[in-house]
Write a sequence for this structure.
Protein backbone atom coordinates (compact mmCIF):
# COMPACT_ATOMS: atom_id res chain seq x y z
CA UNK A 1 0.00 0.00 0.00
CA UNK A 2 1.20 3.47 -0.82
CA UNK A 3 1.93 5.91 1.97
CA UNK A 4 1.34 9.62 1.62
CA UNK A 5 3.67 11.69 3.78
CA UNK A 6 2.99 15.26 4.83
CA UNK A 7 6.06 16.99 6.26
CA UNK A 8 5.48 20.20 8.22
CA UNK A 9 7.84 22.73 9.76
CA UNK A 10 8.21 22.40 13.53
CA UNK A 11 8.69 26.13 14.09
CA UNK A 12 5.01 26.98 13.68
CA UNK A 13 2.21 26.35 16.18
CA UNK A 14 0.70 22.88 16.34
CA UNK A 15 -2.71 24.12 15.19
CA UNK A 16 -1.14 25.93 12.25
CA UNK A 17 0.90 22.83 11.42
CA UNK A 18 -2.33 20.91 10.86
CA UNK A 19 -3.66 23.61 8.54
CA UNK A 20 -0.40 23.84 6.57
CA UNK A 21 -0.27 20.07 6.27
CA UNK A 22 -3.80 20.05 4.88
CA UNK A 23 -2.79 22.62 2.28
CA UNK A 24 0.24 20.54 1.25
CA UNK A 25 -1.94 17.43 0.93
CA UNK A 26 -4.44 19.33 -1.23
CA UNK A 27 -1.61 20.71 -3.36
CA UNK A 28 -0.23 17.22 -3.90
CA UNK A 29 -3.63 15.93 -5.02
CA UNK A 30 -4.05 18.88 -7.43
CA UNK A 31 -0.60 18.39 -8.95
CA UNK A 32 -0.96 14.60 -9.22
CA UNK A 33 -4.42 13.86 -10.64
CA UNK A 34 -3.34 10.36 -11.75
CA UNK A 35 -1.85 9.40 -8.39
CA UNK A 36 -2.40 5.92 -6.93
CA UNK A 37 -2.86 6.80 -3.24
CA UNK A 38 -6.38 5.84 -2.21
CA UNK A 39 -6.83 7.40 1.24
CA UNK A 40 -4.83 4.60 2.84
CA UNK A 41 -1.81 5.61 4.95
CA UNK A 42 -1.55 9.33 5.68
CA UNK A 43 1.39 10.24 7.89
CA UNK A 44 2.02 13.75 9.26
CA UNK A 45 5.66 14.36 10.22
CA UNK A 46 7.43 17.37 11.70
CA UNK A 47 10.82 18.68 10.64
CA UNK A 48 13.18 21.43 11.74
CA UNK A 49 14.70 22.24 8.33
CA UNK A 50 12.26 21.64 5.48
CA UNK A 51 14.63 23.05 2.83
CA UNK A 52 17.37 20.59 3.77
CA UNK A 53 14.87 17.73 3.60
CA UNK A 54 13.61 18.86 0.18
CA UNK A 55 17.24 18.82 -1.00
CA UNK A 56 17.53 15.19 0.14
CA UNK A 57 14.31 14.31 -1.67
CA UNK A 58 15.65 15.99 -4.81
CA UNK A 59 18.84 13.92 -4.61
CA UNK A 60 16.76 10.75 -4.38
CA UNK A 61 14.47 12.03 -7.17
CA UNK A 62 11.41 11.72 -4.95
CA UNK A 63 8.66 13.94 -6.30
CA UNK A 64 6.86 16.19 -3.82
CA UNK A 65 4.44 19.08 -3.73
CA UNK A 66 5.07 22.12 -1.58
CA UNK A 67 2.73 24.60 -0.02
CA UNK A 68 3.83 28.23 0.07
CA UNK A 69 2.04 30.29 2.70
CA UNK A 70 1.37 33.88 1.60
CA UNK A 71 0.61 34.94 5.20
CA UNK A 72 4.15 33.92 6.20
CA UNK A 73 6.06 35.87 3.56
CA UNK A 74 5.62 33.20 0.88
CA UNK A 75 7.63 30.65 2.84
CA UNK A 76 7.33 26.91 2.29
CA UNK A 77 5.51 25.58 5.34
CA UNK A 78 4.78 21.98 4.34
CA UNK A 79 5.35 19.42 1.61
CA UNK A 80 3.58 16.21 0.66
CA UNK A 81 4.73 13.16 -1.26
CA UNK A 82 3.89 9.57 -1.94
CA UNK A 83 6.78 7.20 -1.40
CA UNK A 84 8.01 3.88 -0.10
CA UNK A 85 11.52 5.22 0.59
CA UNK A 86 12.99 4.75 4.06
CA UNK A 87 14.09 8.41 4.24
CA UNK A 88 10.94 9.20 6.24
CA UNK A 89 11.60 6.66 9.01
CA UNK A 90 13.97 8.98 10.89
CA UNK A 91 11.43 11.81 11.13
CA UNK A 92 9.15 12.21 14.14
CA UNK A 93 5.39 12.47 14.04
CA UNK A 94 4.02 15.99 13.94
CA UNK A 95 3.72 17.49 17.39
CA UNK A 96 6.13 15.11 19.13
Amino acid sequence: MQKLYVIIRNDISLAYQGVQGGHALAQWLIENPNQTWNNEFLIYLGIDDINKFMFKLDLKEIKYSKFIEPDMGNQITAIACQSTDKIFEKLKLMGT
